[in-house]
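Is it possible to get an amino acid sequence alongside its tokenized fold?
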Amino acid sequence: MYWYDRIEKLKQDYTDKQVSVDGERPELCRFRGKVGRVKTINMSGRALVEFEGSANDIGWYDIELEYLKVITQKPESEPIEEEPETSTAPSQLELARAEKERLDQSEVAAEAEASTTTETKEPEQPAKKLSPAELLAAARAKAADNKETSSAADKTDKEARAAERARKRAERQKKKAEGKQESSGKLSPAQLLAAAREQAKKNKVAEETKDEKVEDEKVEDEKVEDEKVEDEKVEDEKTAEPAEEKKLTPAEMLAALRKKTAEEPKEADKSDTSSS
């Protein structure tokens, strides 16, 4: 049940009901034995009670409902000493104060009437002059409404500031990440020096490898040249004129002659056979 619905239900339950107060309460002891009538329930949930028994006391008093008791039969009230009426005329200051109070009451009454309008129209009642208690209750209700509105506005403002801080934090993180990406593409002086040293080392290794290759080729060429010279020397030795023959002894000469003489008839027979 909403707060406003609760107030409306309390109005239906207590309006125009006769009540008595708990006289044991120090602040309510002056109303002990008096019967009051509930005029209405203010927006704070307190009853506005008008007590009977005195023609001069026409004020409405806001009292907590827990200190009121609804009565169906009017109890005997204690005799009340009536104060003698004074016929002193009000001073100019009192008249000015009364006029100012009347204007303030009319303004507060207009505001209270505007704040208590609902979707379901209540039957129109003749305008009543608001008592100081009712005016105070209306002022309290208005202050409570203003406080709720202010707290809601503060909450909305805090949420907006929190969202703005979150957005700025996200933007800073994004910029920081982009800065890291850009810096990763550029080498620092130390990285450039390390890269230069690595390149120099690679160049040195390449030069050493090239020198070794040239040295190997040179050795291979020398080897091939030596082999070529050796082959040429062997060839020259083969094509050189034979050395002087060794002198034969008479016996060797005779043997050779006999061998040659024996070979000639065989060659002649071969030639004859081939011709026939």
